[in-house]
Amino acid sequence: MLTFVGLGLYSAKDITVRGFEAVKSADIVYFEEYTSSLGGCDRLTLEEVFGRKIYPLSREEIENEPEKILLHATSYNVLLLTGGDPMIATTHVDLRLRAYDRGIRTNIIHAPSIFTVVPGITGLSSYKFGKTATISFPYRDKAESISDLPYDTIKQNRSHGLHTLLLLDITHERQMTIKDALEILETLETRHGEGLMKDLIFVGIARAGSEDMVVKAGGMKTLMEFDFGTPLHVLVAVGDLHFMEEEALCKFAGLERDL
Amino acid sequence: MLTFVGLGLYSAKDITVRGFEAVKSADIVYFEEYTSSLGGCDRLTLEEVFGRKIYPLSREEIENEPEKILLHATSYNVLLLTGGDPMIATTHVDLRLRAYDRGIRTNIIHAPSIFTVVPGITGLSSYKFGKTATISFPYRDKAESISDLPYDTIKQNRSHGLHTLLLLDITHERQMTIKDALEILETLETRHGEGLMKDLIFVGIARAGSEDMVVKAGGMKTLMEFDFGTPLHVLVAVGDLHFMEEEALCKFAGLERDL
C-alpha cells in the first residue's frame, strides 16, 4: 500500500491528525521536498516531531526510479510525505498511476494547500479564481526566454473579472521572490505593450501559514518597493472586486484605496 | 482573540495537529455546521473526540447576531470550528472583518478543502480549473427559477479548455445529489439548446475523503444512472484532458473511453 500524505504549508503541525497517525503506523516513510517546499521545517525536524526515521527522496528519484518505491509498496505499508496537499504535483499523480498498474492500493491524506489558503488569507472569494499560472525563472536569465503564459492567463482571467493565483518558481538554487516575479511581469508588459498591468492590483503573500506571514496589496510599483522578507512568496493578480473582497484587502492587506 | 479553525472534509481526524491543539487550549469553542457540512461526524462526536464542550452556532446566529461571539472574543480566546477550510464561506470573512473593526485579533488555522481535494482525488490538474459554480435547488422547484450561472460558467471555462468545480446545494431540509444536479443542468440545456452537455464528461464524487468515497466519470446519462449512495456529493464538468488526466479518470474514476 502506498499512502500520499500532505504536510500542509508551514510547520510539522500542519499535517492532519489522520496524517499524523498514518506516519506513526507506516512501515517506511519517505519525504519528497522538491515539488513543494515546506516553509518552516526540514526532514530532521519532522523526524524529531514525528519520532521516527524519515527517508529523503528527490523529485528525480520519484520520476526516474519509481520502481524502488513501488517494490517496497508491494510488501510494506509505504508513506510519502510532501509539502502542501500531496496531489497537486503531477509527479505524484504519475506515481499513483504506476502503483495502480502494479495492483498496489493507494490512499491520499489531504492537507491545506496554497490553492485554498490564499483565498482564505486575502479574503478573495474562492469562487472567483480563474486558471492558475506559474511564473518561472527565464532560461539563462534571458528576457526573450520568458514565457507568455502568466501574462496570457492574467489577461484571460481578468477579461472575465477573475483573480489569478500566481505560483512562483522554486529551483534547487533559488526561490523566486515577489519582486522577481513582478520584474518578469514587467518585462512581459513591455513585450506586449497592452497596459494590462497599469491598473492591476496585486496581493503578495510571504510565508503563508506562518506566525510571521506578510500580506500586502497594491499596484505593481508599491509591491516592488515593499519588503516581504524571506520566501516562500506567492502572488495574486486581482480581478473585479466585490465590496467585501475590497474591504478585506484594505483591512488585512493594507490596500490603500478610496472606497 | 478569534480563531477560525477548519475541520477538513470528513471525520474529526481531518483537523490539523495545530488546529487540534488550538481546540484544546481555547476558552470557548463554537461549531458552525451550516455553511459546510462535515460528512462523517456531528457536534457530539467532536465533543467526544476533542474531550470538551462545543457550542453549536447556526449560520443565522453568526450573520444576524455576531455581537455575542465578538463580545466573548474581546475577553476570551474564542474558537470557531467549521467544515472544510474555515475561510471559504463569506459569512466567516464578514465575521473576521467585524472582529477587525472592534480591534479583536483573528487567526486562521486552515484545513483540507473541497477545492483542493477534488483535483487530488480525480487526478485533474489544479492548474486547469476555471471559475467555480454552485448548483442551487430551484426556488419552489420551478424550472423557470433555475439560475443560468452554472451553465454559463461551464460554457466559459470549457471555451478555454478548463474544468469546472460544481458545488451542490445544502439546505436545512435537503442535500443535493449528483442526480439532482444533472437534472438541473439538463433543464438548462433544454432552455439553451446549445448542445453544451452533449459530449461533456462529468466526474461525480460522493463522500469525498471518507473510507467509502465513490468517484465515477462519464457522460451525463451514465452518471444519472449510477448509484453514488448518500451525500455529500460534488461534481466536475471536465474541460480539455491532458493524457495523464485522461489516464487518471480511466483508472481512478472508471471512465470508459478509447485512449
Automatic annotation (TrEMBL), chains A, B:
Q: Name one Pfam family in it.
A: TP_methylase
- Reactions catalysed: 2-[(3S)-amino-3-carboxypropyl]-L-histidyl-[translation elongation factor 2] + 3 S-adenosyl-L-methionine = diphthine-[translation elongation factor 2] + 3 S-adenosyl-L-homocysteine + 3 H(+)
InterPro entries in the record:
4pyrrol_Mease, 4pyrrol_Methylase_sf, 4pyrrole_Mease_sub1, 4pyrrole_Mease_sub2, Dphthn_synthase
Tetrapyrrole methylase domain location, by residue? 1-191
CDD domains according to UniProt = DHP5_DphB
- Assigned keywords, A-Z: Methyltransferase, S-adenosyl-L-methionine, Transferase
Taxonomically, which superkingdom? Answer: Archaea
**One biological process GO term for this chain?**
protein histidyl modification to diphthamide
Query: Molecular function (GO) terms listed?
Result: diphthine synthase activity
Enzyme kind, highest EC tier: transferase
Q: Where does S-adenosyl-L-methionine bind?
A: L9, D85, I88, S113, I114, L168, A208, H233
Which pathway, per its entry? Protein modification; peptidyl-diphthamide biosynthesis
For this protein, the Enzyme Commission number is 2.1.1.98
What SUPFAM superfamilies is this protein classified in?
Tetrapyrrole methylase
Q: Which PANTHER family match?
A: DIPHTHINE METHYL ESTER SYNTHASE, DIPHTHINE SYNTHASE
Function noted in UniProt: S-adenosyl-L-methionine-dependent methyltransferase that catalyzes the trimethylation of the amino group of the modified target histidine residue in translation elongation factor 2 (EF-2), to form an intermediate called diphthine. The three successive methylation reactions represent the second step of diphthamide biosynthesis.
Oligomeric state and partners? Homodimer.
Family recorded in the similarity comment = Belongs to the diphthine synthase family.
The molecule here is called: Diphthine synthase
Q: What organism, scientifically named, is this protein from? A: Candidatus Syntropharchaeum caldarium
